[in-house]
Amino acid sequence: MITNKNITFKGIILLTVFGLFIISCAKQTSLSSLDNPWKKIDLVLKSMPETAFPNKIYNINDFGAVADAKTLNTAAFEKAIKKCAADGGGQVLVPNGKYLTGAIHLESNVNLHLEDNAEIVFSVKPKDYPIVHTSWEGTEVMNYSPLIYAKNKTNVAVTGKGILNGQADSTNWWIWSGGKNYGWKKGIPSQNDPANREVLVDMAEKGIPVSERVFGDGRYLRPNFIEFFECNTVLVKEVTIINSPFWILHPIKTNNMIIDGVTVNSHGPNNDGCDPEYSQNIVIKNCTFNTGDDCIAIKAGRDGDGRRVAIPSKNIIVQNCKMIDGHGGVVIGSEISAGVNNVFVENCVMDSPNLDRAIRIKTNSKRGGVIENIFVRNLEVGTVKECVLKLNMFYNVYGSQTGNFIPTIRNVSLENVNVKNGGRYSVWAEGYAESPVENITLKNVKIQKVDSIYLLKNVKNINFINTYINDQKVKSIN
């Protein structure tokens, strides 16, 4: 087992001679013995139902909508959606123009479709977002409705080449983050005040029912942008999403969802591009993410609330996406207590001086969780600031994050990856002595301009196969 080393090329020969890398006798199945995990993608795709809608159109203008970017069209959207659903479904059409609205609540068998030059402009007034059952940073809560929301719906979509504009900036939603870079100053209320975020987390740890976790006015927890809660058979296609208050695409307890050709450009606090949570069979393809936080962050609940729900996220497929700015390209965690498995990332491009990491897993001993079977191939990475692959069991925000739920991370594979500027480390992996990070494989990986090969602490079975770092071939440590 690798215990604790920050290793550069100058030290690799000496460290190998002194036998710091020992052949593991771990009982867990190694990646090399798994039966071609990539075959599972086809099985998942073939099993997924796809959305289909009657050929009927309900133009929001026929229900009183006005495209002047000033008139609040919430009622018009609601009338069109309810009429469409009552008639058996179809397309609710948003014609070219700018339409101001509050929360949009979707129904089963409804496709909200934006014409190419249509823009839905969302109100920045909290009163325009009713209190609903939602989630905030991995904890379920009664809070402001997401800007677009569907709960317990089947066969539902948001499509078209128009724009969804949350209008968030440092004068409204973003200031609630308490971040000085987003307009906050001492004396301005925020989510970090003692009666707000901390109270929600404490309620969840005490097992208080979600129906009694009523927040909203005066609690400063920002709404998600698009949330599908306990839905099945969902499509989000081709829209451009900008200026989000908080997390942007959030499928929670949702199965069989395709996100295709979506562009996300939003640099606010906690502006994750896509956060599948407690969700299964999620395909994210042909998308561009340019974000203020993680581009894609796969979740599974925070601490006690995640263990209460106990639904792992699995069968998450990411294909042909472009990641620009962000804390990480594809990230798993940190709200991860119910576990994540079977993640497939392929044929993606990641490149920005403001992208911190390509692939990242983050958890801690309050979160816990089993994270396993993460497969990545065919990546082109330009620049990352910190590292190409980071696996961390000691992720620490909001003060002490230690507890009695030691996480598990195992079976992580990178194959056919080219990196031009690798940052500080190629691989940064930290586990516990009693729960080491297990079974990491880098195969046909080339990383240039990296300061150190790796930083490793409590790692079992890390294999380098035909892998070159700074033009030097790295020997397998197994």
Give your account of this protein's structure.
With 478 residues, the protein is mainly beta. The protein contains five helices and 34 strands. The chain has helices at 9-17, 39-47, 74-86, 197-205, 303-309; strands at 2-7, 57-59, 90-94, 97-101, 104-105, 110-114, 118-122, 131-136, 139-144, 148-151, 154-160, 163-165, 226-229, 232-237, 240-242, 249-252, 255-260, 263-266, 280-285, 288-291, 296-298, 313-319, 322-323, 330-333, 340-350, 357-362, 370-383, 387-392, 408-421, 423-430, 437-447, 450-465, 468-469, 472-473. The strands form three sheets. It has a 28-stranded mixed sheet that branches. The radius of gyration is 23 Å and the shape is globular. Residues 6-33 have low confidence and may be disordered.
Q: What general outline do the C-alpha atoms trace?
A: globular
Strand content: 35-45%
Rg, please? 23 Å
| Beta strands, count | 34
Question: SS-based structural class?
Answer: mainly beta
Summed over residues and divided by their number, the pLDDT gives a mean of 93
- Give start-end ranges of low-pLDDT stretches: 6-33
**Cα separation of the termini:** 9 Å
Entry summary:
By secondary structure, the protein is mainly beta.
Secondary-structure blueprint of this entry?
Blueprint (H helix, E strand, L loop, with lengths): L1 E6 L1 H9 L21 H9 L9 E3 L14 H13 L3 E5 L2 E5 L2 E2 L4 E5 L3 E5 L8 E6 L2 E6 L3 E4 L2 E7 L2 E3 L31 H9 L20 E4 L2 E6 L2 E3 L6 E4 L2 E6 L2 E4 L13 E6 L2 E4 L4 E3 L4 H7 L3 E7 L2 E2 L6 E4 L6 E11 L6 E6 L7 E14 L3 E6 L15 E14 L1 E8 L6 E11 L2 E16 L2 E2 L2 E2 L5
Key attributes of the depicted protein:
478 residues, mainly beta, 28-stranded mixed beta sheet, 4-stranded parallel beta sheet, 5 helices, globular
